[in-house]
Input
Amino acid sequence: MTQAPVRRRAGRRQHDREIVALALPAFGALVAEPLFLLTDTAIVGHLGTAQLAGLGIASALLMTAVSVFVFLAYATTAAVARRVGAGDLQAAIRQGMDGIWLALLLGAAVVAVALPTAPHLVDLFGASDAATPYAITYLRISALGIPAMLVVLAATGVLRGLQDTRTPLYVAIAGFAANGALNAGLVYGAGMGIAGSAWGTVIAQCGMAAAYLAVVLRGARKHGASLRPDAAGIRASAQAGVPLLVRTLSLRAILMIATAVAARLGDADIAAHQIILSLWNLLAFALDAIAIAGQAIIGRYLGAGDAQGARDACRRMVEWGIAVGVVLGVLVVATRPAFLPLFTSDPGVKDVALPALIIVALSQPISGIVFVLDGVLMGAGDGPYLAWAMLLTLAVFTPVALLVPVLGGGLTALWATMALMMTVRMVTLWVRARSGRWIVTGATR
Output
């Protein structure tokens, strides 16, 4: 009678150690990534308003393009982790190389489209005559770094699948430091202006990609994995990524609809919405770190044929997600009077934002469950279900959000709709997790 509780406690402690070991470095790497843009903004901002406006437009286009391909990290993590669980490190690295080759092909395609269409893409944002040339310059130069950025995504997935989140943290820190130094040197030291900022970022991104490739190539030599492109493997990586691409595009559509609705509510509402959305994204980093740990751990258990281990890990990670969500919610409530003045001194914006922040705080435990189960199902390679679940969420969210300006309630009602969106996601993911249909063991799904 006493042995079972002891074993359960020992199992929980093992899961806790694994989650912390993977999630903490992953969180550091996630936080380091937005610092690239902050560094560019701080340096370019001193060149002038037109240059900063141009940077804002170009960076929005670049971040959208790259975020669409985040499946390169997610799908690669799951596939590599399964091979690791099965004890076949050679095949794991070979699988990772397929993802990296796919990243290079997609990156080349994006560059081929972005360079000639840069002026048209900038025009879509309605840039002023003063900002347009700076936006085009930054976009065209920075686009050259997209292949490196996509390689970083895929290689990060390889290392996560290998249960290594520390190396991505170290590379992200080094990349951030190099980006800051290069930007300052080229913008001011070399007098290159906004072009210097773009080139500094491209060089830093290429350096990060080279660092990742060095680690992967060393592993390939050690385990005898082939580095040559394999058409079948690349095609399989692309097929695994399609459902995750649908999921990502659906989520992006939800965020764009929310911003469009906020813009219709008035200037104070859209200003407050952007502040809250920035906070929401920051909170997501903490929860996404647990999800990343989930992708790596679940994939490994399933690859090893340990279905019960996968179930136990899933249960424990959900508990972590709820606990972290509660802590984040309390922090939001406690710090909101001090948080808002960092972004605005307008009393109207503060009045609109304060009640909406309460909605954000109350929904954090729900978000914790969503992020964790999202990571679990990604780790299981359950992409098709994730795609359909997100499309259903988009179908529920869209009409409700569009009714907010008609029925009233302002920004608080809009963020209540965002909470509804997260609740729908939670229900769809919870139903799938409870069904056990995601549990497919073996080196491949």
In short: The longest helix spans residues 3-45. The radius of gyration is 22 Å. The mean pLDDT is 88. The chain is about 85% helix and 0% strand.
